[in-house]
Amino acid sequence: MNKKQQVAERKTFAIISHPDAGKTTITEKLLLFGNVIRQAGTVKGKKSGKFAASDWMDIEKKRGISVTSSVMSFPYENFHVNILDTPGHEDFSEDTYRTLTAVDSVVMVIDSTKGVEPQTIKLFKVCRMRGIPIFTFMNKLDREGKEPLELLSELEEVLGIESYPMNWPVGMGKNFLGIIDRYNEEFVHFTGDEKEEKMPLEQLQQSELKDHPQLQSTEEELMLLDEAGNQFDEEKVMKGELTPVFFGSALANFGVHSFFDTFVKFASPPKPRKTDDGLVSPESETFSGYIFKIQANMNPAHRDRIAFLRVCSGKFERGMSVKITRTNKSIKLNQTQQFLAASRETVDEAYPGDIIGIYDPNIYQIGDTLVGGKESIQYRELPQFPSEMFRKVRVKNVMKSKQFKKGIEQLVQEGAIQLFKQDATEDIILGAVGLLQFEVFEYRMKAEYNVDIEFTMLGDKLPRWLPEPPENKNIYDSRNILVKDRYDRYAVLFESEFTLRFFKDKYKDIELIDLLESNDYKSL
Ligand code: G4P
C-alpha cells in the first residue's frame, strides 16, 4: 500500500467528556468492535477493584483513575484507528490538553440526563481553538433525560457550535423505542438485548410500531429539524463548526456501532501541520513528528521515561536516525513502541497520524520536533496551556534544597507542572490545570527525589501574560500577583473575573494575554 493510502486510512482521535458521561464504556465498545478485547469489563472496573489496563502508576492504582493518557491502535474496516485516551477524572491535567493537540478529530460524549457539563466545556475550548472536527454522542438514552431538542440547543448556546443530528431518538428511558437514523434512512429498534434490529423507514410505516405515540411526536420533531434545523455540511464538520450528533446508549450498546461506522467515514485523516516555516503535509517524504507527552517511570523497576511522538509526515522506520531540532543532535530510534494500554509492542514502522512511544534517555522535552532528513522543522502544535490553580511550594527540610531544586527542574521540564516565581518575594509558585498534578508532583518528589514538600494554597487564579516587562510594579498585590514564568516572562495571577475586569478598566493601556484565546502560539 502506498503512503498516500496509509495516511488516508489513519483516524486518530480522542474521546472527551465530563466524568461519568460514559467515555470508558464507549471506549470499551469500540475496542470490542475492533476485536482488541473479547469481553466487556476488561477495560473498566472501578467498583469491582479491577483496574483499567492503562493504569501504570501506583498512584493510579490507589485512586482507580488513569493519570496517563494511553493510546490504543487497531484496524477497523478499511481504516487504521488510533484512540488517544484522555484522563476522564475530575482532576485531569495538562496532559489531557496536550493529547488533544495530537488528534485529528474528537468524539464528545454527553450524558443526556445532564447535558453539557463543565469539564466538557474546558476540553471543547481546546478542540475549538484547533478547529478540529467534533462528533457528539448523546449517551444514556435508556434513562429519562433532557429533551433531545433541549440538548441540541445547549450545544449551540453553551458551546457555540452548530449541530446536525445524524439520528433522532424515539422516546427515552422506559419508553425508549429506538432511533431514526437520518443519515442511513432507517429505523433501529431498541430491544434492550444489545442486538440492533434495523428496518428501512418505509417498512416502519407498515409495521405495528407505526401507531406508537412516541413515534408520532418524533415525526413532528423531525419535520421541525428538516425545516428549521441546520443542513449537514461536511466542510463545516471538517472545520469544527458543525458537530454531527448521534443519540444512543453505550451501556446497552445501542447506536454505538452505527455511530462508529459513520464516524470513521467522516473523521479527519491527518492534515498538514503548522511549523515555524509554514505547513508540512503528512504526505511529505521526510519523516517528522513532535513529542506531546513524556511519561516518566512507566515501569518503576527500570525508572524509564517514554516520550510520546505524533508522526506528522513521512514514514517512521525502526532504527532510523533522526535529529532533534532544538538541540540539533542526532539519535537512532531503536527502542520504539506502540501501545495497547499496558502492553507495549515494538513498532517497526509508523505513518502520519500514528503515535509511537520512544525510549527517552533524558534528552527529549515536550514540544520537541524529530526530523528524519536534513531539513530543519519545528512544529508549533504545542501551546502553553494556562494553569488554573496555584500553590506555593517549599522544601520541608532545607538540607534537601539541592534535590528539591533538581526535582522541580526536571518535573517542570517534563511538563508535569508549571513553574512561576513571585516577582516580589522569589517564592516558588506551582501552577496546574488539574489538582491531580499537585498530587503527582508531591508523590514523585518523594518517590524519585526523596524530598518532602509543603504546599500553601493560593487557590484558583486567572493567569494573564504581559507582552512587555511591567513599567510600574507597584500596581500589583495579593489580588493580582505579579509572577515570572519559567521563561522569565511576566504574568499576572488574578484572583477572580472581577479583579481581572477591574484591572482592565483601570489600566487600559496594559495588554493582557489569555493563552486559551491567543491562537497564535508565537505571540509570547
Ligand atoms: P466515564 O468513563 O466517562 O467516567 O464514564 P463510565 O463509562 O465509567 O460510565 C459512568 C457510569 O455510567 C457507569 O456506571 C456506567 O455503567 C454508566 N453508563 C455508561 N453508559 C451508560 C448508558 O448508556 N446508560 C446508562 N444507564 N448508564 C451508562 P457506574 O455505576 O458508575 O459504574 P459501573 O458500576 O457500571 O462500573
UniProtKB/TrEMBL annotation:
<feature type="binding site">
    <location>
        <begin position="17"/>
        <end position="24"/>
    </location>
    <ligand>
        <name>GTP</name>
    </ligand>
</feature>
<dbReference type="InterPro" id="IPR005225">
    <property type="entry name" value="Small_GTP-bd"/>
</dbReference>
<keyword id="KW-0648">Protein biosynthesis</keyword>
<feature type="binding site">
    <location>
        <begin position="85"/>
        <end position="89"/>
    </location>
    <ligand>
        <name>GTP</name>
    </ligand>
</feature>
<dbReference type="InterPro" id="IPR041732">
    <property type="entry name" value="RF3_GTP-bd"/>
</dbReference>
<protein>
    <recommendedName>
        <fullName>Peptide chain release factor 3</fullName>
    </recommendedName>
</protein>
<dbReference type="Pfam" id="PF16658">
    <property type="entry name" value="RF3_C"/>
</dbReference>
<dbReference type="InterPro" id="IPR000795">
    <property type="entry name" value="T_Tr_GTP-bd_dom"/>
</dbReference>
<dbReference type="InterPro" id="IPR004548">
    <property type="entry name" value="PrfC"/>
</dbReference>
<dbReference type="InterPro" id="IPR053905">
    <property type="entry name" value="EF-G-like_DII"/>
</dbReference>
<keyword id="KW-0963">Cytoplasm</keyword>
<dbReference type="Pfam" id="PF22042">
    <property type="entry name" value="EF-G_D2"/>
</dbReference>
<comment type="similarity">
    <text>Belongs to the TRAFAC class translation factor GTPase superfamily. Classic translation factor GTPase family. PrfC subfamily.</text>
</comment>
<dbReference type="InterPro" id="IPR009000">
    <property type="entry name" value="Transl_B-barrel_sf"/>
</dbReference>
<dbReference type="InterPro" id="IPR038467">
    <property type="entry name" value="RF3_dom_3_sf"/>
</dbReference>
<feature type="binding site">
    <location>
        <begin position="139"/>
        <end position="142"/>
    </location>
    <ligand>
        <name>GTP</name>
    </ligand>
</feature>
<keyword id="KW-0342">GTP-binding</keyword>
<dbReference type="InterPro" id="IPR032090">
    <property type="entry name" value="RF3_C"/>
</dbReference>
<dbReference type="InterPro" id="IPR027417">
    <property type="entry name" value="P-loop_NTPase"/>
</dbReference>
<keyword id="KW-0547">Nucleotide-binding</keyword>
<dbReference type="Pfam" id="PF00009">
    <property type="entry name" value="GTP_EFTU"/>
</dbReference>
<dbReference type="InterPro" id="IPR035647">
    <property type="entry name" value="EFG_III/V"/>
</dbReference>
<comment type="function">
    <text>Increases the formation of ribosomal termination complexes and stimulates activities of RF-1 and RF-2. It binds guanine nucleotides and has strong preference for UGA stop codons. It may interact directly with the ribosome. The stimulation of RF-1 and RF-2 is significantly reduced by GTP and GDP, but not by GMP.</text>
</comment>
<dbReference type="InterPro" id="IPR031157">
    <property type="entry name" value="G_TR_CS"/>
</dbReference>
<feature type="domain" description="Tr-type G">
    <location>
        <begin position="8"/>
        <end position="271"/>
    </location>
</feature>
